[in-house]
Design brief:
- Two copies of one chain form a homodimer.
- The first copy, chain A, is of the alpha+beta class.
- In chain A, 68% of the residues lie in helices and 13% in strands.
- Chain A has a three-stranded antiparallel β-sheet with strand order 1-3-2.
- In chain A, helix 4 crosses helix 5.
- At the A-B interface, helix 2, helix 3 and helix 6 of A face helix 2, helix 3 and helix 6 of B.
- The structure holds a DNA duplex.
DNA sequence: CTTGACTGCAACCACAGGGTTGCATGTTCT
DNA sequence: AGAACATGCAACCCTGTGGTTGCAGTCAAG
């Protein structure tokens, strides 16, 4: 299902979302408290529509969630989501080094 | 200095490098052992030149290092580098959740 | 009811960048 | 020396996408 895909999102999609300056500006801004697209547009040097697009991307990978607050839509950052993928990356990196060390070890014992 | 910048590389540059499918193909291939650009081009469905560009990007953020092996240039993935940024991401995510929880706590006690 | 503010959709522009082909230049091996 | 393979550089194409402007719809407040 797509619901699972949303939460499980591939690491590359997540990294792609994180590989953009403006998106980090938005995320760090949200890190100080929930905010709507318009509110973010006021404190960042980009248009509201641009922000909306970025929020859509971030929402797609599950880095933010929406909270209806009256007539406006507030966005909340989900730190746990970032931490989760971070742990996956850490595991991957560790695995690489472990495997290459093993190869090196084998090569030395010939 | 730029030397420090290379090793310290911004998180966004790192994520940008990791936000690309082909680059992950290269990295996972390198995870199974060092390889040259030509060797990678043989087992991946892209040109050697494309691979070379990707390797340049990965090298710039410090995810791979070069090892001169005879006439060819072998590339080695640096898992520790990935793990390091992963831990930084983890810390950021944790900090977000911590701060937002604090805000929520304050709001409730009014 | 009207005004102001927030949202959403669509068209559009401009640049970055992933991918290719082509060529020139080494470097190992026979 | 010559063949075969590896690298490096440059020009080029084309899609993706960050950003903009413009407009229409909605909802709260005066």
């Amino acid at each position: 299902m797509s619901g699972r895909a949303l939460l499980d999102g591939s690491v590359v999609a997540m990294c792609n979302a994180l590989g953009e300056e403006t998106r980090w500006s938005i995320l760090t801004a949200l890190g100080e408290g929930d905010a709507s697209a318009s509110a973010l547009a006021r404190r960042l040097p980009v248009t509201r529509q641009a922000i909306a697009k970025h929020l859509a991307v971030l929402h797609e990978v599950g880095l933010v969630e929406t909270v209806q607050a009256g007539r406006e839509v507030q966005y909340r950052v989900i730190g746990a989501r970032l931490s989760a993928t971070a742990r996956r990356l850490d595991a991957i990196g560790t695995e690489w080094d472990r495997r290459l060390a093993a190869i090196k070890h084998i090569a030395e014992n010939i």
